[in-house]
Amino acid sequence: MRDDNCIFCKIANGEIPSRTLYEDERFRVILDLGAATRGHALILPKEHFADLVELPEDWAAGAMVLAKKMMMKMKAALHADGFNLVQNNGTTAGQTVFHFHIHLIPRYAEDGQTIGWKAGSPTPEELEAVQKEIAG
Ligand code: 5GP
Ligand code: ZN
Asked: With contact defined as beta carbons under 8 Å apart, do 18 and 51 qualify?
């Protein structure tokens, strides 16, 4: 299903032009207009899923295999030193477009980007409590 009000549905299905790096029946890979680094790209499914919760498992598997292939190709073509895969879910986590996507971000020495988080220092008790909360 597509969502008529979703810009990534339109881009993924070619209704809005994009700098496409790859396309198949299920996915389109495009350059991000707000690229963090040279070559920053997005994997978009051609059907509308808001986030990873909505993405069916077979699509999720396909997206990850494609991410690996694109990473290898882009790393070689762009001579990138490293690579980040980023996938945001929810406004709090930085998601701004509510159509599932994976960021493919080539990294270069001294590219000036910081993609990450500040390390915390949970106590052993806090780790145990959260472990129980999640794993039961
Ligand atoms: P999010 O913050 O939801 O994880 O990522 C959304 C990404 O989509 C951002 O990196 C932003 O630069 C990119 N973006 C937003 N609108 C467009 C667009 O119309 N075309 C392209 N190519 N990228 C877009
Ligand atoms: Zn969509």
From this structure: no
Nearest to 101 by CA among 58, 46, 35, 21: 46
Burial class (CB in 10 A: 0-12, 13-18, 19+), 133: exposed
**How confident is the model over 46-69, as a mean pLDDT?**
98
Q: What whole-number distance in Å separates Cα of residue 81 and Cα of residue 59?
A: 29
Question: pLDDT per residue over 67-91, tens digit each?
Answer: 999 999 999 999 999 999 999 999 9
What is this structure's pTM? 0.97
Distance 33 CA to ligand 1 centre (A): 6
Ligand 1 proximal residues by C-beta, below 6 Å: 7, 11, 18, 30-34, 88, 94-97
Taking residues 15-32, what's their average pLDDT?
98
User: How many residues appear in the chain?
Assistant: 136
CA 65 – CA 53 distance, rounded (Å): 18
- Using DSSP's 3-state secondary structure scheme, residue 133 falls into helix
